[in-house]
Amino acid sequence: QVQLVESGGGSVQAGGSLKLSCTASGRYPMGWFRQAPGKEREFVADISWGGGSSVYADSVKGRFTLSRDNAKNTVSLQMTSLEPDDTAVYYCAAAPTSRSRVGTWADDVPYWGQGTQVTVSS
To answer: What is the 3-state secondary structure (H, E, C) of the chain?
Structure first.
């Protein structure tokens, strides 16, 4: 089974920064989704199997950066200029190696981390 272990959640003031990390049991296409109370789980960003290509949701583009360390099977989401609307539970996601990327549709994601709370205060 694919295992995803997340770390780095917490609370920060608006305009601040926070870094999330996710370590997988292997090398997979990986990414992040988030879910705010009462809302659907939405795509944040994902990165290809080799780490050469990243895709970001329009809401976070220019503020969040996703990178990976393939030697450690770890992806990191560096979040800057955080806003209250970024408050959510953030979930690491992974897809089988047969796919080039996780994609933007949460219902098509087979592997999830446990979720970590990010709270941005105004």
So the answer is: CCCEEEECCEEEECCCCEEEEEEECCCCCEEEEEECCCCCCEEEEEECCCCCCEEECCCCCCCEEEEEECCCCEEEEEECCCCHHHCEEEEEEECCCCCCCCCCCHHHCCEECCCEEEEEEC
Residue in the block written with tokens 């960003």: 45
Per the CB < 8 A criterion, the answer to whether 25 and 3 are in contact is yes
Cα three-residue angle 108-40-24, rounded to 5 degrees: 50
pLDDT digits (tens, 9 = 90+) for 46-98: 998 877 789 999 999 999 999 998 888 999 999 999 999 999 999 999 999 99
Residue type (1 letter), 25? S
Beta sheet of 64-69, edge-to-edge order: 4-7, 18-24, 74-79, 64-69
